[in-house]
Structure formats: C-alpha cells, structure tokens
C-alpha cells in the first residue's frame, strides 16, 4: 500500500532532475496534487520527464505555463493527455476536432461557406478547451504594466555577404537541380544538404566572419571597423546603439548562436563598453552576480548579451527597456520569452523590441514561419478568428528554398530591401505613443501611431492572446 506523507512534510518542492532520478522512490507515495511549473516541458509525449511523472500515483494535476502551444497541436495534446488521459486519449481524434479542411464533415457541410465553417470550428475548439484552461495575461494582474511595441528592422547584405550567399547557392543547388530535373526525384542525402545550406545562409546573415573564420581557421577577429563593414545587421545594430545608449536606455541583445554573442562581446569591448553576458557556459553564481549588477540603477553596464535559449527563461531584467532580437528562433515562443525578460511585472517604462532581419534572405522565411505558429496559438488558445495553417517542421521545405534561391520575391520584399533612413529610425524609436495611450486607471486609449510598414521596417501587430502577428500573416 502506498504510504501517506505525514504532517512533517505536507509539501515537497523538487526539480525535474530529482523527479527523473528518484521516480521509483517518489512512486511509493500517493500525491494529492502535483503542480508542474514550466509545464510546456511535458510537450513531448515521449520525453523522459513525462514518462517518469506518469509513474507517480497522482489524484490531481496542475500545469503552469506561459506557452501551452509552441509548435503544433500534438504538443498541446501531450499536455492535455497528461492532465486527463481518459478524455484526451487519442491524438488522432484530438487533431480532427481542430481540422479546418472539411474532410471530417459531411457532404452537406462541405458545401457551406469557408467563413461559416471556420467560425463553427473555432467556437467548438474554444468550448472544448475552456474547462481545462485558466488563462491570465500580464495585463489581467498588472493593469499598470507599461506597453510594448515590436518592430522588425531589415538590413541589406553587404557585397561580401552577397558573394558568399551566391557561392553557397551555386555550389549546392547546381547538383540538386540537375538531379531533380533529370530524374524527377530527390536522391538520398540531398535534403540534408539543403538543410545544411540553410544553416550556412543563416550564419552568413548574422555575420560572414562566422563562416570565414571556420574556413581559414582564423582565431583572431578583424578590427571592429572592418567587422562592421562586413555585415549589414552589424551596421544596423551600430546605428541603433548609437541612438539608444545616449538616451539612457538599457538594452538586452539576444542571439541563438554563441559565436554571434562572442562577436558582439568583442565588438562592444573594443568600443570601450562594459557588458554582461549569459549563455549556456555561464555558471549559476556568475549569472546571479551579473543580473544584480545590470539591475543596479547606479551601474554603468547598459548592455546585456544573452543566448536565446539560456537567457530566455527565469531571469528578471526589468532595468532594461529595450530588447534586440539579433536573429529569430524557429520557435516564436522562445523569442517571446526573451522579450519578457524586460517586459514583465516590475517594469516601469514602455518597452521597445527591435527584431533584426536581413532582407531577401532565409531570415524572412524563418520569421514568417514563426509568426505562422503564433497564428496557430492565437486560434487555439486565444480568441482569434484566423484560418489555421498547420505548423510544419522547423525547416523550410524544398519548394520554399528553391523559391528563395531563384530570387523569387513579392512586392513587399522590394520595400524592405531599402536601408531605413535616419529620420524613420528616429521616428520608430519614439515611445510617446505607448505613454499617451495609457489612461490614469491603466486602461488603453487611442494614440497616434506610425504606419505598419515602411522602407526597411515593419511594425508587428499585437494580439489579445498575448502574442504578436505580422500584418501580412494576420490579414
């Protein structure tokens, strides 16, 4: 018989690691409640943590998460299956409830208008989920929280970046096109080459020195003036910091790549700036020391460099009022978590988020894919009425890659292939609309705003569900 925990230990607080290592011993007790913080850790139905927690005798379960839907409906089902396995027993049946294609409807229903069917399905999915979700936004618990604006700033490639991109494309695509056209099928291994090409193109967008140093095995950085000259995003970042820092803004800069963080740290230190830094190699004590130093109002450290995955969770950096996403994550929730390091309870100033992207590159495709996932979250968890696109794998498919590599572009691409003017950059940095739009009771009022799009920039549209959508995606 399982033993009851006595009055001396009415509550046990532990970590994921202890649960995974000691599940055998913890399973000797009957647990009245189990609360899992950062509940999205259970999104993978095959993960070890989920498998070990299932071994425990549990009467009631509660998941706490700010990101219940990150990539696709399978992850949401994994969470609901853990909470109520008897109700959410079939993954296939669960996905059918949210299908917009009409294949699960009768012939008569197939004839209904797409708009009417969409409304019906959205209403159905909300009625299904409502009993199991208690959603609280920051605005629900802190009505005086300052507002946030996200802006995408597009940088053009330098000639060196263009030459590297053309070299990468011509070398990899030539064999691909020859084999595909001649045989009509893609030979084994070619998809892996295309995915590798995608990674090399992303590195080139971030900075060509990342590729160049790997090729010639160089361990020394070039002078910072050359470093800036080589990369369009570095030039844009330099312009941004030159305007932000004199205005006493504290800045967080996120990148997924440790090599990029290395480059940024070298560049800023050579400019004589003190910076803090957190990535996966920084120990816990050093993290705490740097966070305290940065948040100290008397500190001269105005820039914090962070890797998106290591620095995007569990850190309070409300001393900053500006967040720069140097390169976007495939998973949009990772970028939202990064923004929330400064836009959280305790923040007293309006927050600007600048997402840097290289125009007419794979980065534009990644951003559109990421915002497509946010659209899925907005439909399922929020109260939107957008048409659902199934979130696909985290890599561009071959057709999308080929469209990009053949220089296929839409009219918007040409708009963004223009360096943002100094005048527009100053206008975008103005935060008065975020302040003017807040009433004394915390309610939002109408305030003047910039157009959603302009040469070299795009304002991201916020949603009521807490996420954000590109205007092109949500239209």
UniProtKB/TrEMBL annotation:
<feature type="domain" description="Helicase C-terminal">
    <location>
        <begin position="236"/>
        <end position="426"/>
    </location>
</feature>
<keyword id="KW-0067">ATP-binding</keyword>
<dbReference type="InterPro" id="IPR001650">
    <property type="entry name" value="Helicase_C-like"/>
</dbReference>
<dbReference type="InterPro" id="IPR027417">
    <property type="entry name" value="P-loop_NTPase"/>
</dbReference>
<dbReference type="Pfam" id="PF00176">
    <property type="entry name" value="SNF2-rel_dom"/>
</dbReference>
<dbReference type="InterPro" id="IPR014001">
    <property type="entry name" value="Helicase_ATP-bd"/>
</dbReference>
<dbReference type="GO" id="GO:0016787">
    <property type="term" value="F:hydrolase activity"/>
</dbReference>
<dbReference type="Pfam" id="PF00271">
    <property type="entry name" value="Helicase_C"/>
</dbReference>
<dbReference type="InterPro" id="IPR038718">
    <property type="entry name" value="SNF2-like_sf"/>
</dbReference>
<dbReference type="InterPro" id="IPR049730">
    <property type="entry name" value="SNF2/RAD54-like_C"/>
</dbReference>
<feature type="domain" description="Helicase ATP-binding">
    <location>
        <begin position="1"/>
        <end position="86"/>
    </location>
</feature>
<keyword id="KW-0378">Hydrolase</keyword>
<protein>
    <submittedName>
        <fullName>ATP-dependent DNA helicase DDM1</fullName>
    </submittedName>
</protein>
<keyword id="KW-0347">Helicase</keyword>
<feature type="region of interest" description="Disordered">
    <location>
        <begin position="436"/>
        <end position="458"/>
    </location>
</feature>
<dbReference type="InterPro" id="IPR000330">
    <property type="entry name" value="SNF2_N"/>
</dbReference>
<dbReference type="GO" id="GO:0004386">
    <property type="term" value="F:helicase activity"/>
</dbReference>
<dbReference type="GO" id="GO:0005524">
    <property type="term" value="F:ATP binding"/>
</dbReference>
<keyword id="KW-0547">Nucleotide-binding</keyword>
């Amino acid at each position: 018989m399982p033993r009851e925990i006595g009055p001396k230990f009415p509550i046990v607080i532990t970590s994921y690691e202890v649960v995974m290592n000691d599940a055998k011993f913890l399973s000797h007790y009957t647990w009245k409640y189990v609360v899992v913080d950062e509940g999205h850790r259970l999104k993978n139905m095959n993960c070890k943590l989920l498998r070990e927690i299932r071994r425990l005798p549990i009467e009631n379960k509660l998941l706490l998460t700010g990101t219940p839907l990150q990539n696709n409906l399978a992850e949401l089902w994994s969470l609901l299956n853990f909470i109520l396995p008897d109700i959410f027993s079939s993954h296939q049946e669960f996905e059918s409830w949210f299908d917009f294609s009409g294949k699960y409807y009768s012939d008569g229903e197939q004839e209904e208008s797409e708009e009417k069917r969409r409304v019906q399905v959205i209403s159905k999915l909300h009625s299904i989920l409502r009993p199991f979700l208690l959603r609280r936004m920051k605005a629900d618990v802190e009505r005086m929280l300052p507002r946030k604006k996200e802006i995408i700033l597009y940088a053009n490639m330098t000639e060196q970046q263009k030459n590297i991109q053309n070299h990468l494309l011509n070398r990899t695509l030539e064999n691909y096109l020859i084999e595909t056209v001649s045989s009509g099928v893609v030979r084994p291994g070619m998809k892996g080459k295309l995915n590798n090409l995608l990674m090399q193109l992303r590195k080139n967008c971030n900075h060509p020195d990342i590729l160049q140093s790997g090729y010639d095995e160089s361990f020394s950085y070039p002078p910072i003036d050359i470093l800036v000259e080589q990369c369009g995003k570095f030039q844009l970042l330099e312009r941004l910091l030159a305007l932000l820092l004199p205005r006493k803004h504290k800045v967080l800069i996120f990148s997924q790549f440790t090599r990029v963080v290395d480059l940024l740290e070298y560049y800023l230190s050579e400019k004589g700036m003190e910076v803090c830094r957190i990535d996966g190699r920084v120990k816990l004590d050093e993290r705490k020391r740097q966070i305290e130093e940065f948040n100290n109002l008397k500190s001269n450290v105005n820039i914090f460099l962070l890797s998106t995955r290591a620095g995007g969770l569990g850190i309070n950096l409300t001393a900053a009022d500006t967040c720069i996403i140097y390169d976007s994550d495939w998973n949009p929730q990772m970028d939202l978590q990064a923004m929330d390091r400064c836009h959280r309870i305790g923040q007293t100033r309006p927050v600007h988020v600048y997402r840097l992207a290289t125009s007419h590159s794979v980065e534009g495709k990644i951003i559109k894919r990421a915002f497509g996932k946010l659209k899925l979250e907005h439909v399922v968890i929020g109260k939107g009425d957008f048409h659902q696109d199934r979130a696909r794998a985290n890599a561009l498919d071959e057709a999308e890659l080929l469209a990009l590599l053949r220089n296929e572009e839409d009219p918007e691409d040409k708009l963004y292939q223009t360096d943002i003017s100094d005048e527009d950059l100053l206008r975008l940095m103005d935060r008065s609309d975020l302040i003017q739009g807040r009433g004394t009771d915390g309610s939002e009022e109408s305030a003047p705003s910039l157009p959603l799009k302009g040469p070299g920039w795009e304002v991201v549209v916020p949603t009521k569900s807490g996420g954000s959508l590109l205007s092109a995606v949500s239209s």
